[in-house]
Each structure stands twice: as structure tokens, then as C-alpha cells.
Amino acid sequence: MESLSQDSILECQICFNYYSPRRRPKLLDCRHTCCSVCLTQMRTSQKEIRCPWCRGVTKLPAGFSVSQLPDDPEIITVIAIPHASEHTPVFIRLPSNGCYMLPLPVAKERALLPG
Questions:
Q1: Spatial distance between the Cα atoms of 16 and 111, rounded to a whole number of angstroms
Q2: What number of CA atoms fall less than 13 Å from residue 11's CA on the CB side?
Q3: Which SS3 state, helix, strand or coil, does residue 61 take?
Q4: Count of Cβ atoms closer than 10 Å to residue 78 Cβ
Q5: What's a Gene Ontology MF term here (predicted)?
Q6: Would you say domain 6-83 falls under CATH 3.30.40.10?
Q7: How do the pLDDT tens digits run along the chain, 115 residues long?
């Protein structure tokens, strides 16, 4: 089996976007993972999602949405850790038409994806 690189693990293998609070890594019953946006688009009925790799079926109870599927814990722990620095750049435009970057500290609880 071909192993995935660290960057590949952090991105949905359907749309190739990185996982984020909007594109949460959702775990199917077959143990494959893809983002919540792709799963919502792939959902063939209100009752199930079919895995694009193995065709395994993940049943969805009545009223159950894709957002209620479990997150992939291995990916969540990797993306919840701030990568390059403890600061998030903020760009502001000043009246002089110049653009300056101000580093702001990231609160540890804000670095985690919302539940």
C-alpha cells in the first residue's frame, strides 16, 4: 500500500483542500476520512454515505447530518497544534495606503478546532 506524506494526511483526498474548521476531517464507518464539505456533496440519500474508495456504506440515522459524524482523531490532533509560530499575522490598511503586519498571540483554546 502506498503511504501518504504528512501534507497529504492533512488534506482531503477528494478536493485536495487542507482540513480546517469549515472542512473538518470526518471518519466513515470503513475508517476512511474525507472533509465534511465533500461528504455533504457526496451524500446520495438522507440515510447513508458511500465511501468513494471502498464503497463501504456509513448509515446516517434520521435527522443526522454529516457534521455529526465523528472527526478523525489522528488528523484533529495534528491540525489542532499551531504549526509555524505562536502568532497569527494580521494585515491592516492604514490611511497612508501602506500595509503593515502585526503579529498577535494565539490563545491556546482558540488554536483548537471548535467541537
A1: 22
A2: 11
A3: coil
A4: 15
A5: ubiquitin protein ligase activity
A6: yes
A7: 445 566 688 999 999 999 998 899 999 999 999 999 999 998 877 789 999 999 999 998 888 899 999 999 999 988 875 544 556 666 666 666 666 566 666 555 555 555 4
Instruction: Give the pTM.
Output: 0.64
Residues 89 and 106: their CA atoms lie apart, in Å, by 10
Integer-rounded Cα Rg, in Å, for the chain is 18
90-108: burial string, b at 16+ Cβ within 10 Å, e else: eeeeeeeeeeeeeeeeeee
Q: Which whole-number Å values give the CA distances from 18 to 5, 6, 11, 30, 83, in the listed order?
A: 13, 12, 4, 21, 13
Closest by CA position to 52, among listed 20, 84, 12: 12
CA-nearest of 29, 6, 14, 15 to 79 is 6
Name the residue among 77, 53, 49 with its Cα closest to residue 1: 53
